[in-house]
Amino acid sequence: MNPDSGKPSATAAVFDRVTPEDFLPVLEDALACRLTGLASALPSYINRVYEVEAATGERLVAKFYRPGRWTREAILEEHDFLWECVDDEIPAAAPYELESGSTLGDFDGVPFAVFPRMRGREIELEQDETLSRVGSLLGRIHACGARGDAPHRLRMTPESFAEAAMRRIFERNVVSPSCEQELIDLSDEILDLAEAVYPPDDDLIRIHGDFHRANVLDRPGTGLMAIDFDDMVTGPPVQDLWLLLPGGPEESRHALGVLLAAYEVFHPFERASLRLIEPLRAMRMMHFLSWCAVQSDDLGFRAQYPDWGSREFWIRETADFRIQLDNIRRSLETKEGSWTR
User: Fold this and answer.
1) DSSP code of residue 68
2) Which of 18, 38, 55, 211 could be disulfide-bonded to 34 (CB atoms 3.0-4.6 Å)?
C-alpha cells in the first residue's frame, strides 16, 4: 500500500493505544535485554516514537509505524537502505536486528523498529564549509542508493506521487466548492509542465526523500549524520538537494554551486534536473495536502491544524498553487546551467 492511501487498518485502534506499560515488555523480548521504566515520547505525529533506556544505560529509540502507511516490505526496504549506508561507512542510524532475526518487530499488528539514540544539533547552512560537508554526505548516500532498488516504496513521479495525491483529495470531497474547479485546473497544468521535464524512470534512484536541515545532525567529534529515512522513495536525486536551499534556485546559486561541487566527488549529478526544483516543490505541496485530507478526521490532526478544510483554507491553498505555477513557468524559461555559474 502506498502512504496516505486512506484505507482503514484493523490495527488502527491498537496504534492509538501504544503506551509504555504495554510495549516495554514486548521491546524487552524483542531485544533480549532489560529496560528501565524510562519511556519519553518524542515529537512525531505520523508515527509513535519513544526514547527508552536499557538497564546498561544505553538510550534507544523505538518507532511504531502508523498502520496502513507503508507495507512491511516497504519498511524493510528502508531498513535495508540504512544498513547499506552503514556498510559503506556513511553516517546513518540503522535499526537493530531483533531476536527474531529481522529489524522489524510486531506489537499486536503494529510494526516497530528500534534504533540507537543519536544526539546532535541541527546543521546551519550559512557557511560554505557546512554546505560542502552536507553535499559530500548526500553524494555518498545517493551513490549507495543508485546501486539497488526498492520495488515496494513509492516512486516519486508526477503521476504516482502528485496526480494520485490530488485524486485522493478530490475523491474525499474536502475542497471548498468555490475553489474546486480552479484547483483542478491549476494542478492539471502544473503536472503537465512537470511531466514535460521529468527524467525517464531509469534515472530514478533510492533517495532520502525528506533531506532538509532538521534531518542532518551535526555531532561534535563525529561529523554529520543523516537521520529519519521514513520518507525514502525512488525518485530524482535533485529532490534531496532543493530542500536544503534557502530559496528558489535563482537566489540560491552560490549554495547550489558549493553543494554540487562536493556532491559530484561521490556521485554524478545531471545539471538539467535543476529545472525540476519548482515542479517538485508543487508536487510536495500536493502530497502534503493529500496526507492532510487522509488524516483530517484524526483528533490529534484537528488540534494541530484547526482551520484545515475551511473555505478560507482552500482560498489560501489555491492562491499558493497559482503562485507556484508562475514560479514553474519562470523556472522553465531559465537557461540550463545558469543557476550554478
Assistant:
1) T
2) 55
